[in-house]
Automatic annotation (TrEMBL):
Keywords: Transferase. It catalyses: RX + glutathione = an S-substituted glutathione + a halide anion + H(+). It holds the Pfam family DSBA. Residues 2-196 form the DSBA-like thioredoxin domain. This is Glutathione S-transferase kappa 1. The gene is Gstk1. One of its GO terms (biological process) is glutathione metabolic process. Its EC number is 2.5.1.18. One of its GO terms (molecular function) is glutathione transferase activity. The keyword Zinc does not apply. Belongs to the GST superfamily. Kappa family.
Amino acid sequence: LLSCHCFFMLQVLCRYQHIWNIELRFRPAFLGGIMQATGNKPPAMLPKRAEYLLKDIKRMAKYYQVPIQISEDDFQRVLGKSNLGAMRFITAIDMTEPQYLEPLSREFWIRFWSQHEDISQPENMLAVAGQAGLSSEVAQKLLEMISSPAVKKQLKETTEEAIKYGAFGMPAVVAHFNGEPHLFFGSDRLELLGSVIGE
């Protein structure tokens, strides 16, 4: 969730789903779990790469017309914040009201990357749910679900499934085409994805 590149990919895939006539299914997975299981490290931990990333994210935000406001301080903010609660909240919505998964995810990203809010706070999760169109009763129920064994188990299973497909970071997109899964990593692989599915 904290990856701004996931925000780019979400926006682009949603724009292309009807042009390419593809069926999108969003699968909440925990980036921290994927990184730990594969031995990967956040790219922003490398000073020269962080310097480049800052410029690159700004260019991508302009190109994709995605409202991301980023500075050097944001890398430390990302590395220092846990998004596990928000990921469990999104998992709970996927389990109960999956039609809200896309708007809820988008609202979380906007609040984190454009408004620099702490999305791990319960009151902010409830505000995100309201903005995505959920009633306060449903939002409160989702908030109560995030500590349940069922939600924890579901998020763990989805994360493990992503790793089985070969994911080592996010965004990870798996295209099922002609009975075969194709993994694409990163927000700049749209042309390759299109090539594989014949678009």
